[in-house]
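Onboarding guide, step 5: your first structure request.
Type a short instruction followed by the sequence, for example:

Predict the 3D structure of this protein.
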Amino acid sequence: MLNSLFEAIKADLHVSDAQLGLLGGLAVTLFASVFGVSLGRFADRTKHRRAVLAGCLVAFSISTALSGAAGGFWALLAARVCVGVGEAGCIPISLAMLADAYPQERRSIAMSVYYMGLPGGILLGLFLGGWLAEAVGWRASFMVCALPGLVLAGVVGTMLHEPPRGHADRSEGAAPALGGAEVGQLAFLPGLLVLLRCRTFVCVLLGGALNLFAAIGLFAWMPSFCERRFGTSTGDTGTALSGAMVFGAACTLAGGAACDALFRRGAELGVYAKLPAAAVLLGFPFACALCVAPSFASTVLLFLMPTLSANVPSGPLRCLISALVPANRRTVANSVLEIGIGLAGGLGPLFVGGLSDTLQRSRCPGALASLKARQALTEDERRCSAGALSSALLAIQFASLPAAALLLAASYFAEGDLARASTAAGAVELTAVPSSVAEEGEVVERAPDSAVSAEAARVQAEIMAKFAARKAAREAAGTAGCTPGRAHRVAALAAVASS
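The system replies with structure tokens like these:
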């Protein structure tokens, strides 16, 4: 909602574009990232994830209401920081609970439904924020929009069902992955090193971060861009852009459903990164075109495709990571993922705002001088400000190209990383040493109990046989068109399954 109030806040508090970018991005994501890991570790260790989630919602809602009481830039920045602290635990805890509740072949659609909340929230924020700002002002808008969060916190704390950890994995016979840390907890730093040794995780982290850097940079400034460039009102702008976000919400659901359908029909695990990469590439030319579109109507129509490229990857990428991470590490893994992606997303609005100020300073220094003097901009200064913002939005879109390349690399590495992790899980079990025996982060090897060893071998054989069968079916007509690397992976998977 804050993004639809940028121009009203700018006029009232006389802040620069860079300051608006800080409020709309990094002020929230930086502290959400810092506290997200701590809350993620706490949620991985506690039996009451539902209570932690409800507490985060309460903190988020109260901080949103306090944003409307801010008397200046620094007070508003402090309120936005508190919003980030409240937001910190919501996403990683929710994703971990979803992964526990749904098996692999249904997990992407479940996470995509969850991530429909992102475009849905932006939709409501643009629509309600625009009209509320015109009706009651930007301060009261924050207070009104904080009320639903408090109601939702009560529902979550009293009615939400919390699935047992690893419930879906046990029911589908999934193998532990990424070092076999299914038994016991690793300390954070050793666990982080395990994650960073997974090539798929690193590519998803970097690719998702660059994609969100470009997407949030565009989304945060779209209301201001339209108001400056075309002179539209806050309410009209919010209504039009919220309509485009309906399409983005539908794309979130469609992306998850498509990946799940392809996986059930025999596609490799890498399809959960390949389809998002295609979506990112598809949205790039449309995002560039809208920055120079000649009319408000054409800008809104072109805005549809960037909403696709931003929202399609949400569910599939988290589903891919959940497939590679054991149940007792998913909250921390999702927290680490949200750190990288969230920080990049928070830097997007700040980058656009800072570049816009720099371009205004060189093209029309009078605009910034009027702002500092708390004077209204002239028509020429307003047009110059709109042109600077347009150039800044165009520049940030080129981050989408390396993002797509990294996601394609993740799709290539996914199957091999799963095979290596599952093989390692069957060979050695890693368990945390009790705190009374060893220091934080120490791990020891121990010979697995015979019953546990037999179960691990059975589970490993089942999951690897499933992937090997898919490979064999695709190669049934012959391996003439199969590259040496792919043929080697097929043979390796078959060997693991037979062992």
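Each response can be followed by summary notes, for example: Strands lie at 429-432, 443-446.
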